[in-house]
Amino acid sequence: MHKSGRGHRDKVQQFMAITGSSEKAAIQALKASDWHLEGAFDVFYSQPHIRTVTDSRHLEELYNRYKDPYVDMILVDGITLLCNDLQVDPQDIVMLVISWHMKAATMCEFSRQEFIGGLQFLGIDTTEKFRDKLSYMRSELKDEQKFREIYNFAFGWAKEKGQKSLALDTAIGMWQLLFAERHWPLVDHWCQFLQVRHNKAISRDTWSQLLEFAKTVDLQLSNYDEEGAWPYLIDEFVEYLTENGIVQSHQN
Amino acid sequence: MSAQKKRNFKIEAFKHRVELDPKYAERTWKVLEHAIHEIYNHNASGLSFEELYRNAYNMVLHKYGEKLYSGLVTTMSGHLKEIAKSIEDSQGGLFLEELDRKWGDHNKALQMIRDILMYMDRTFVPINHKTPVHELGLNLWRDNIIRSGKIQTRLLDTLLDLIHRERTGEVINRSLMRNITKMLMDLGSSVYQEDFEKPFLEVSASFYSGESQQLIECCDCGEYLRKAERRLTEETERVSHYLDVKSEVKITSVVEGEMIANHMQRLVHMENSGLVNMLVEDRYEDLSRMYNLFRRVPDGLSTVRDVMTSHLRETGKQLVGDPERLKDPVDFVQHLLDEKDKYDKIINKAFNNDKSFQNALNSSFEYFINLNNRSPEFISLYVDDKLRKGLKGVSEEDVEVVLDKVMMLFRYLQEKDVFEKYYKQHLAKRLLSGKTASDDAERSMIVKLKTECGYQFTSKLEGMFTDMKTSVDTMQGFYTSQYCETGDGPTLAVQVLTTGSWPTQPSAPCNLPAEILGICERFRTFYLGTHTGRRLTWQTNMGTADIKATFGKGQKHELNVSTYQMCILMLFNSADQLTYREIEQAIEIPAPDLKRCLQSLACVKGKNVLRKEPMSKDIAEDDAFYFNDKFTSKFIKVKIGTVAAQKESEPEKQETRQRVEEDRKPQIEAAIVRIMKSRRVLDHNTIVTEVTSQLQSRFLPNPVVIKKRIESLIEREFLERDKNDRKLYRYLA
């Protein structure tokens, strides 16, 4: 479909001049955004800057290095080795970010598809490139939107396969980790509250709504809306905070 | 007479103007003036109407209308001034009479004058926009007499004084009063109002204000209201006798305001005689009077109603919280019914069946009945008591009346599902122990519940009845098939209960005695033979047995016992003495049940077919039990089983409540799903409202529970939160 009218040609020229991309890339981006320049820029820049072509042979080598001898997956030992190579602590939150990029189904294992696909997307085919990418990945946690995605991804990733809810201990561990990146002063009270009052697994809804709560409700709970359809656990948490004098009650 | 030539007779107008010279006009006027004088001097008989009329007519015709009219005014005014003087001069009591008499005279005179001057009245007056004669006469009277300085005040004072005297008990001349007030009314409604009515109302107000202050200090409520009522009647009567009918509303509202409205609170709350006392003592007459008086004033009825409501709520609250009362559930409910009856009667007899009072009664009952969360259980126990024995000998209509009254209480319950649970339990016990006094009454109750709550509520209950009937048929079939095998063995009567319809019982173990195992097995085989694919479990905690027992001196008795008790007693066929532990081992029923059975067999006077050592009331592990040879009873048939429904113990109550809460969860979820399915997207608060309204005929759902159910449904992927607005939920198909 070569429908390049005069207007389209101008846009392609403009695009190439601004982004420095090839004509092919320009047309691709513009088509994807229905020939709107602004949209086309978004499309272009949301792709990894260096759309390097990864060498599939290298990727195979890399995968095989970490793969378990008996199963076609990377398991705990492989991950330990990977962390070693990357000079990263296995508990480091960047592992979560990596898993997110790979769309890993469960923590502590990667399937072939997940590993190779993820690295391809990130443009990594050697350990050095991997190491170089780490700081970028850490920075992604600072982005509001990405943090939310990673946070919500963490639920499915951290829970047991086949379970609907997340075990409390694991949840607490994840929260500690995540809220170290994006500071929420009430996180310790929250975890304490759960251990004392709830002592059961956490549902997905509660998990995702907690982030909203942390983001929108201030530390004195002055803008907490009782009618706000928060999950009941969060309602109970607010009660817990007021009962224990951690927060002044706002009875009106 | 010779026939004269007919002349055409024509009437022609004057061809020439008939001039009336001024002197003639003056003379004519003088005649008329004289006539007026004579009329006022009661000398009218000597006058010729025709002549005078003609004179007046001529004057008007010859354009002397103005002279005539102004002459009339002057002359009449002159007379009136004289009359005023004579009225002023009258002494004391004669004042009104004089006024009345002169008024009568004036009217007569005015009539005559008007007749005489009719032509002027009809022609000159309207053309020149003058006041017609009659009206003129009234106005002149008003201005010269009524509004004359001395007369005006004296008139008002006299009238008010007379009324005051009448109010304090004197008799006055009512017809004279009527004439005077009629005079004022004739002079114009504004005259009546300004010159009499307004001051009358003011004076009355202060009179009644004073009187009411006095009375309220020395009378009790009933007395005061009687007096107020009397005053109102009096005033109405006064109006009908000598005041303008339009004054009635005004004066009665003054009395109502001063005597009732201003003292409402004090009256209603009067100690020892106020509304509450009247209610407690069923003083219908006083209550009725209060109702009728208070309804006349703004907020009157609402005051009465509010006090009644808070009294009801208070007494109701006390009733449902009184531990003494709560000891006997049947008595408790009877009290509730009696209280309802009492107030129904009051509203009927004294409050005119006023709907707003009915509503207040209903809302009060609803309020305090639900304060006690055992109300559903107790009401069911009441019905149980009535259906067992309480309705024997009562006619069919009366049965209906009692059940209808119970249904009224039922309607007040917020937790109807709790009632359902208990009703089922109690019904099961009644059916299984054969203790229903009247099948018709049972059916009638079910029908009423169905009408109130729908088919869902009663389908299981009806299932229970069906099972009972089917079991009878089953037993017949069983015995026909076993005819050769019965012989001397025990007779078995089985009720086969469909699990879903009957209250769930946890199955407890129990070792049945060998003597009956045989026939039990045969029944099982028989039943399963005709109903393959079903599973039967003996409910040993619900059965009864009749045992023939022979005691020491050969006395034979027939003992009616529970299945558990039967198992225990049969053990004594092969042992004279057994310890608690041995019994427990042999029978294997749960310890609390075992202890209760042993207590009922050994520790109850008149039913102690077993002897216990030591003789304490409590059962200890080492207690020994003996067959009581020395047992006596004047009855051949002795009933020992305790299968009657009793109010639950604390732990049982907790358990039932828990089961109710569990049952509510799926109902709430079903309601949420129903609502979301039809509305697709809904916000949280609306869901809560809708669910509550859908379920309120059964129970009042707790919003926190609703929220938890929503979250559970989110987890099971029936619903999801909207991505942009967390308060919105979306139905997932």
Please compute the radius of gyration of chain A using only Cα atoms: 23 Å
In whole angstroms, the N-to-C terminal distance of chain A is 66 Å
Q: Assign a percent range to the helix content of chain A.
A: 55-70%
**What class would the helix/strand composition of chain A place it in?**
mainly alpha
Looking at how many chains there are and whether they match, the oligomeric state comes to heterodimer
Instruction: Kindly report how far apart the N and C termini of chain B lie.
Output: 128 Å
Proportion in β-strands of chain B: 5-15%
Share of residues in strands of chain A:
under 5%
- Shape designation of chain B: elongated
Described by strand count, sense and barrel closure, the largest sheet of chain A is: 2 strands, antiparallel
Shape of chain A: flat
If you average the pLDDT of chain B, what whole number results? 88
Q: Order of SSEs of chain A, N→C?
A: HHHHEHHEHHHHHHH
Keywords (chain A): Ubl conjugation pathway
Protein name (chain A): Defective in cullin neddylation protein
Organism (chain A): Ensete ventricosum
GO molecular function (chain A): cullin family protein binding; ubiquitin conjugating enzyme binding; ubiquitin-like protein binding
Description:
The complex is a heterodimer of chains A (252) and B (733). Chain A is mainly α. In chain A, 62% of the residues lie in helices and 2% in strands. In chain A, α11 crosses α13. Chain B is elongated and about 150 Å long. The mean pLDDT of chain B is 88. Classes of the chains: A mainly alpha (252), B mainly alpha (733). The A-B interface holds A 164-165, 203-206, 209, 212, 227-232, 235 and B 683-685, 704, 707-708, 711, 714-715, 721, 726-727. Chain B: GO terms for molecular function: ubiquitin protein ligase binding.
